[in-house]
């Protein structure tokens, strides 16, 4: 069991918006270069797994029709294959190309007509992997354990006693610190997914590679996702559900959408198909209207322009309510899109759906909308990304500091820099109230230095769980983290922390830290609810994805994943405030701070 060497350094990856994927220094640590563990002289070594090239040109598995026997065979194999990948010492040592091991055993397994014969084949296969030592010792105190591995399926899948005994023995095997397929990110602790071939030239008609994709994703989540308990259903049910879907996903589009739907089942805003995926880009549209939409009070409202001149020329103005897009109602579009919009909660799904409502592969989009009391229809033009700034919406344009009134200071957490703090804290100290705007993503992660000024003493602000790499599927608590230090000159005014659906990951982590102040209140609406340094990897077809790899909780253990940052004062923008082009949250914050204690 390895602990974090330096908890004061945290590198978050933000992927809150469909257009942006902001990578931190963590990315530079996550390569596939293999180094000898605990060796001061780092050098590359070659593993037997890397000499296996039998299926480089395809899995050689022929398409087949599912029946109940094959469905059960594929479920059992998916469970066993993934378990062996992370538990069997000969596999974790890199002695096998485990993808290609799947392609060898899978045709045999699905060809067997009954479970009795299948179990014999699986038991014999497992025994060919080699011997190992047993080390059935428990090193963690019960109070530290957040989640135990879910291995109950070994006893409950109807396996033969011989197969069960073999699997149970492997669960008690002595595993080395090094594992070929999984590691731990230095100084942070989230899983480092290694040696997962992206197979960029994969033929989507190859059913073997599609099944591999399902098995790879399902097992990584089963053993290394800290929030598996929040998925909302038994993760094994998801494996059952997606076997027929992945088997019948015969082309690139159906394969990509099936994987996207699978990813959505973990309800993590960090998890998606990221990067410039050609299939998704074509489906969603390569051209954009000059204006954009957000969901306000449950309606699709024009809230701004990618290009103001072109947007005004389209006839749409801020505050217009879009009701139909190319003949489809907004509710119809939402209903069709939800399963393909992975996110921690509904608010964030709507955020991401809104980003793409006015995309198209055509030169125009047909709209019906409400302008005041009038119902209008129009055709608006679309533009390629090179001619309008579709990313500008997400860029932080606000100054990091200003005095809103003589007594109220404002900090924009997105543009705030550490270097500014010595001067800014002098000015903030004169204010009776402080607003910290976290409706953005921090560019410089200044929360620790700012909290050293704001807080009167060292204060717990969260607690953390990590994966136990010696016992895959187990997550343990490393206790509370604290922020701040003894400080007689701390900021004693009232603090309002502004949040909304764009508050994600490091922004949520920062909001947690600021809310440790004794006079702080969080104001706003549901956040993106995805905190914890991300672990990233590829699926076959070069589908790039990631997930929250560390469990982040409040000091008392309360969840933030899926539910978001705790809101003390709920405030959401209204259509009226959008039409008046006012920042309703900021106005409420000012009014709150102006109130007498």
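Q: What amino acid sequence fits the structure above?
A:
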């Amino acid at each position: 069991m390895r602990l974090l060497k330096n908890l004061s350094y945290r590198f978050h990856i933000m992927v809150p918006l469909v257009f942006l994927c902001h990578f931190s220094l963590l990315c530079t640590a996550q390569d596939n270069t293999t180094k000898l563990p605990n060796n001061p002289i780092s050098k590359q070594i070659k593993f037997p797994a890397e000499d296996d090239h039998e299926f480089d040109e395809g899995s050689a598995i022929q398409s087949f029709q599912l029946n109940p026997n094959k469905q059960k065979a594929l479920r059992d194999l998916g469970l066993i294959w993934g378990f062996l990948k992370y538990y069997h010492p000969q596999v974790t040592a890199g002695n096998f190309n485990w993808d290609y091991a799947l392609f060898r055993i899978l045709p045999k397994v699905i060809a067997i007509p009954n479970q009795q014969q299948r179990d014999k084949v699986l038991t014999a296969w497992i025994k060919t992997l080699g011997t190992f030592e047993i080390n059935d010792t428990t090193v963690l105190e019960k109070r530290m354990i957040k989640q135990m591995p879910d291995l109950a399926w070994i006893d409950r899948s109807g396996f033969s006693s011989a197969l069960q005994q073999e699997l149970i023995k492997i669960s008690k095997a002595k595993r080395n610190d090094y594992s070929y397929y999984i590691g731990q990110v230095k100084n942070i602790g989230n899983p480092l997914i290694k040696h997962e071939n992206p197979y960029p030239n994969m033929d989507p008609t190859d059913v073997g590679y599609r099944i591999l994709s399902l098995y790879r994703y399902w097992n990584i989540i089963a053993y290394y996702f800290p929030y598996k308990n929040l998925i909302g259903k038994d993760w094994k049910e998801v494996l059952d559900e997606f076997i027929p879907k992945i088997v019948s996903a015969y082309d690139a589009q159906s394969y990509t959408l099936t994987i996207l739907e699978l990813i959505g089942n973990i309800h993590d805003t960090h998890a998606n198909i990221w990067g410039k995926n050609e299939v998704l880009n074509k489906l969603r549209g390569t051209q954009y209207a000059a204006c954009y939409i957000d969901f306000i009070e449950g309606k699709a409202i024009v809230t701004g322009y990618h290009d103001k001149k072109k947007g005004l020329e389209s006839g749409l103005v801020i505050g217009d309510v879009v009701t139909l897009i190319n003949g489809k109602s907004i509710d119809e579009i939402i209903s069709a899109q939800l399963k393909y919009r992975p996110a921690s909660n509904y608010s964030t799904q709507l955020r991401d759906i809104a980003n793409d409502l006015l995309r198209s592969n055509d030169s125009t989009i047909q709209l019906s909308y409400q302008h005041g009391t009038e119902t209008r229809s129009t055709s608006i033009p679309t533009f390629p990304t090179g001619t309008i700034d579709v990313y500008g919406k997400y860029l932080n344009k606000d100054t990091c500091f200003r005095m809103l009134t003589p007594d109220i200071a404002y900090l924009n957490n997105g543009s705030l820099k550490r270097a500014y703090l010595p001067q800014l804290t002098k000015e903030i100290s004169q204010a009776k109230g402080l607003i910290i705007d976290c409706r953005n993503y921090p560019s410089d992660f200044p929360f620790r230095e700012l909290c050293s000024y704001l807080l009167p003493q060292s204060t717990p602000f969260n607690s953390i769980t990590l994966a136990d790499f010696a016992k895959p599927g187990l997550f343990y608590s490393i206790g509370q983290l604290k922020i701040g230090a003894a400080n007689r000159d701390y900021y004693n005014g009232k603090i309002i922390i502004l949040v909304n659906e764009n508050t994600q990951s490091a922004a949520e982590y920062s909001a947690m830290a600021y809310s440790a102040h004794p006079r702080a209140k969080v104001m706003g609406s549901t956040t993106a609810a995805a905190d914890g340094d991300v672990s990233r990897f590829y699926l076959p077809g070069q589908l790039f994805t990631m997930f929250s790899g560390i469990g982040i909780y409040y000091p008392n253990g309360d969840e933030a994943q899926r539910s978001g940052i705790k809101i003390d004062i709920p405030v959401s923008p209204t259509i009226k405030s959008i039409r008046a082009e006012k920042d309703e949250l900021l106005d409420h914050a000012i009014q709150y701070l102006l109130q007498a204690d």
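Q: And what stands out in the fold?
A: The radius of gyration is 26 Å.
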